Amino acid sequence: MGRKWNNIKEKKASKDANTSRIYAKFGREIYVAAKQGEPDPESNQALKIVLERAKTYSVPKTIIDRAIEKAKGGSEESFDELRYEGFGPSGSMIIVDALTNNVNRTASDVRAAFGKNGGNMGVSGSVAYMFDATAVIGIEGKTEDEVLELLMEADVEVRDILEEDEQVIVYAEPDQFRAVQEAFKNVGITEFTVAELTMLAQNDVSLPEDAQAQFEKLVDVLEDLEDVQQVYHNVDLGE
Known about the structure:
By secondary structure, the protein is of the alpha+beta class.
């Protein structure tokens, strides 16, 4: 589970860093979170979580400040949160989360991305039942045993703790996201390699080489769509 997460995050972070699309996506997500509650992360948990994620992707402070100021300024721009589910090559499963100010445009774009790249859209619930909403938090400088002891002392329940690539990744229920982070911050750990609320597949699948190439193109096309925030899937992309 964790290995797949690392590979996807590294691939996405590298790709988006080259195009700056990640900054635009975070700007929109920060604006929506700030608009839905107080524009202060200390009193707005959703905003705080988005800002923690943005930090792990090195989103510039100017992008963050601009989005929050836009929300404070009373902008009337609004976005709908949408989730699409579908199937890629060889029966692979994909979830697409979007924020959009034009539902028809987004639905059309997502449907076209699937249709032109060996996939097809599914109905609501056709894929999501094979995924678990999960908080994923990573740190460096501690061992797996040390993190386990730390979280036990803080009385924080988690699903799993794995040591991967010189970091420790904690998997927990989404409502434990803040509790895990606070447990780390209470012992002086304030930098996180991963800080995500994500959807993890219950079981990974491997694809034939030709199908995997087509699948990766489908994911790339979906991630490049302006309104798409996150793409989750059940394919093991390997090392």
